[in-house]
Amino acid sequence: xxxxxxxxxxxxxxxxxxxxxxxxxxxxxxxxxxxxxxxxxxxxxxxxxxxxxxxxxxxxxxxxxxxxxxxxxxxxxxxxxxxxxxxxxxxxxxxxxxxxxxxxxxxxxxxxxxxxxxxxxxxxxxxxxxxxxxxxxxxxxxxxxxxxxxxxxxxxxxxxxxxxxxxxxxxxxxxxxxxxxxxxxxxxxxxxxxxxxxxxxxxxxxxxxxxxxxxxxxxxxxxxxxxxxxxxxxxxxxxxxxxxxxxxxxxxxxxxxxxxxxxxxxxxxxxxxxxxxxxxxxxxxxxxxxxxxxxxxxxxxxxxxxxxxxxxxxxxxxxxxxxxxxxxxxxxxxxxxxxxxxxxxxxxxxxxxxxxxxxxxxxxxxxxxxxxxxxxxxxxxxxxxxxxxxxxxxxxxxxxxxxxxxxxxxxxxx
Length: 414
Fold this sequence. Notes:
There is one protein chain. By secondary structure, the chain is of the alpha/beta class. It has two domains: about 1-205 and about 380-410, Rossmann fold (3-Layer(aba) Sandwich); about 230-380, Glycogen Phosphorylase B (Rossmann fold). About 35% of the residues lie in helices and about 20% in strands. It has 14 helices and 16 strands. The strands form three sheets. It has an eight-stranded mixed sheet with strand order 3-4-2-1-5-6-9-10, sandwiched between helices. The protein has a six-stranded parallel sheet with strand order 13-12-11-14-15-16, sandwiched between helices. The chain has a two-stranded antiparallel ribbon with strand order 7-8. Helix 1 crosses helix 14.
């Protein structure tokens, strides 16, 4: 089977977890004998190709006002113009046509379409190929891909989102199979009238990590390490709840520490740093997970938007680090309250502080959650299981397309 993956970005250009999961999927299926090709956007004009870990990667110069993979946020008018062109980018459709003509794939798997627009679907359909759409974000409902505005998660599309996404639901009928990285993602899009008639699946992202040499908190030791070490890892943005975390941490009457790992847009990082008054909060920049989780006792994933999945929560549990998470999006599919962590609600801001204080004051609870964390995410750290699921869905989708094509060729009198 020859598979063409289409995504907004591809390593070394990484915008988030989607690119990491896509790389693991592409390289894993290549090792299993599939012929894998990837098409992503790039910042240089034209279409170029290279090979990364035995996978052929095409990079298409984005035909828009700017390449969207940048740390500096463009001005408002530039962003509006970018999204207007991205509503249906006919110029990017040409790249899809060229790669399909050159590579002749059997099936095309779309991931994040930001930069490509749904024009990619139309070109794949024109080529007579089956489409699988993997849902990592809210791009099909919201130009910003987040459904997050004015500091809150949107419960429904606003007027501008409806305008920018007019007709997308009807175009989604071209998709043969749709995969949500969480049940939350799948049901959210289906609830808005998308993917009618498509075969629907949920395949949780997988992040393989070896077991840690020891738990941060031992079940046999009910005296917690003091001061307790909290940690955040991820994009530094409002939607990720970084402001909420800093404000709550600084209100608490305890001698704990908080490490904030990751990067964000320049303006966002500056605002968060300006909020900090406690000497116990430190920004530590990019960190490797296997290093970071040895340095903390509790991970905090305080998302205040509909987090599509929450790979960072899986990674923390895989390292036997319990998680305090916002009860948002796909996170409750990973974190079970009082089992591998604690859940809090952005609608009640103090619940985050209360959760942190509970783990500081109840070492027995912390030890129990730590001991149980890794086993609760066992299926989510099994990369081969994820690859099995994807390979089965791709095979079934291709078979359904071929059977439908044969049925259409049978004369009506037979």
